[in-house]
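Next comes a concrete protein, fold included:
___
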Amino acid sequence: MNKQAVRRIGMQFDDNTLVPQLFGEHDRNLAQIEEELDVEISARGNEVVISGEKLKLKMAQTVFDVLWDRLTSGLSVGKEDVSAALQVALSPMDATMRTAAKAALKEPHIKAKNRTITARTPRQAEYLDAIRNNALVFGLGPAGTGKTFLAVAQAVTMMMAGDIDRLILCRPAVEAGEHLGFLPGTMQEKIDPYLRPVYDALHDMMPPDQIARRFADGTIEIAPLAFMRGRTLSDAVIVLDEAQNTTVAQMKMILTRIGEGSRMIITGDLSQTDLPNGAKSGLQDAVEVLRGVKDTAFIAFDETDVVRSRIVKNIVEAYDRRDGKK
């Protein structure tokens, strides 16, 4: 910190019962803000004094405003919420965009098993809004940005509300740079390893007994992409995960499965394709072909939207630097 440019501001919070949640256990939220913004924060009672450069002080104020809005709206504040608030503060936005981003981070969007799920970045909020208002949505970007999780979460919410009858989750069965050879067991046992990330997202949203019942009655289906051929999927949400590993023909096939009253969410990372060398990704082809098609939305995430963990964000940024993207 440049000592010559150091300034100080104070902030006071008017509900003493919420202040411990704002500061975090052993003041860990304050420590996280200090580390990210290169400021110093001292807390006493329901007041904080922040020391740092003028621009960093404004950012810190924004972070505290976002977190306090969450708490006074009845939502919790954890490490990921602090990261999301920091993202709002650090992102280049005009006043209107910043106000919208703050509102998105405190608005409860989705009820999961034991928690309320909210957008953690402005782009995640845009993604959820796109899913609600378009028949076809593409969520594009790196690991850890919530593409699959939010798609499944929104789809489950719609199913529970009676807006759709079925949830269909599919994924191309492509090995990630490995050749596994012959796999013993039933067809389901053979394909389960490829679909495990989709199962994980689903289990984050619903109790196991409820998932089992819905598998049994067919209202939730998880299958490899190849099993979708020849079907017309009506009154359903179809989530296609890891779509960068589809061929052009596979992508056209799944896109033409959309029936009456259905919508489709396609997620993938174009930098992570596992297709054989020279094969064009069906996801890349669809992005090129479908731009401008009515009722279709494209949401492009980047490393600033990574909410999985700090190390994942650092890894994505490191590879982008190596590949000349930054």
Remarks:
- The first helix runs from residue 19 to 23.
- The CA atoms of residues 171 and 241 lie 5 Å apart.
- The chain has twelve helices and eleven strands.
- The chain has two domains: 3-106, 110-322.
